[in-house]
Structure formats: C-alpha cells, structure tokens
Amino acid sequence: KMQIKAELKIVPAINWQRNEFYFGPASGWLPPSPNIPDIETAVLYSGVCLFEGTNVSEGRGTEYPFKMIGAPWLKPDKIMEELGQPLINGIGIKTIQFKPESIPGKSKWPKYLDEKCNGLFLTLIDMQKSNPLNAIVRILQAIQKIHPDHFSVLESHFLDNLYGSDKLRIMLELNGNVEILIDSWAEDENYFYLG
C-alpha cells in the first residue's frame, strides 16, 4: 500500500451526472498523449487500446490513431459481414485502407510500418450509447473467427495487462463466445458503463 502524503481537494460539479460528457465553458481539451488528440479518440481508446496487445494495428502512425484498426492480411468486408451491422454500441464502422508511417513524437515504429493495411474506421455516432470495450471485444472475436491463421495475441500477453486479466485472451484463444464475457461485466460491480 502506497503512503502518499498529499492534500486532496475534491471540487464538486454542480448538476453533472457521471454518465454525462461535459462540453461546457471549461471543457478545453488537453491531450493526455500525442496519440489521443481529441475527446472522441479518448472515448474510443478505452476499447481500441486492446489491439496494442495483438498483431493488428491500432492506427498508430496515422492521423487517426485509435480510430482505425487493420493489417495487410485483414479482410474488412468479411469482418463487417460477420459483425452484421455498421453500428455497434453507438460506434459507426466502415472499411478503410491506410499505411502507417513513422511520425516523430507520436509513433516512430508503428505496426506494419509503410505497409498498406486493410481495416476498419471507427466513429462515435452516439457518445451516450457508446461502449467501446463492448464493441471492440466483438470486433476482436470477428477478426479471430475470420482470420484464425493470421490473427494473434502478442506472446508477451500484453493484452492481459490492457484488459485487466487473462479472460479475454483465453476466450479468444479457445474461440469462445465473448458474449459470455460481456454478460459477466454486468455482474461485476467494478465494471463501469456510461450507457
């Protein structure tokens, strides 16, 4: 247990509810990272960051990191067909092609550097209904199903760190139904969902 000796002052937000996004007069955006330039990316990051633990690009090395995912071997039309809809949990999905480049100060060595990637571009259509973690877990399962010979989780098991346990990795490796995992979140009092 850490012994931090600091003065903590909590400033209450009047008439604000935890499930609301704040866009008022003091809502100036300060990027927490060069790869999270706006609030839309910050919201999507909560799910898309899971791709950092796989061999699928999370869009680093582009102008839209964490808003697109892809790989040279990915067949986005097949993924879209498997998902069955262009909108999941308030997030719009469309097919795209991109080529990750070295961008000093943002991403020097992105996955698939200078290779053409086929992928998906993600857009927040309804921020209040958005649930990036839910949507991305479903997309991961679709990629695993369509590309069992190409898709992989990094051997470092970094996905476990990003997700918070080994449950997602094991579910993907065993070709399990991620709906079981998603349903378990509702039972976990530590899981927070904005919707």
Low-confidence stretches: 191-195
N→C terminal distance: 33 Å
Radius of gyration: 18 Å
Number of strands: 4
3D structure, described in words:
The protein has 195 residues and is an alpha+beta fold. The protein contains six helices and four strands, in the order H-E-H-E-E-E-H-H-H-H. It has a four-stranded antiparallel beta sheet with strand order 1-4-3-2. Helix 1 packs across helix 3 and helix 2 (76-83) crosses helix 3 (132-146). It is globular. The relative contact order is 0.16.
What does the secondary structure layout of this molecule look like, with pairings?
Elements (H helix, E strand, L loop, with lengths): L38 H10 L19 E4 L4 H8 L3 E2 L2 E8 L18 E8 L7 H15 L11 H6 L3 H7 L4 H10 L8
Antiparallel strand pairs: 1-4, 2-3, 3-4
Helix pairs in contact: 1-3, 2-3
Put the structure in a nutshell.
The protein is of the alpha+beta class and 195 residues long. Helices cover 29% and strands 11% of the residues.
Attribute tags:
11% strand; single chain; four-stranded antiparallel sheet; 6 helices
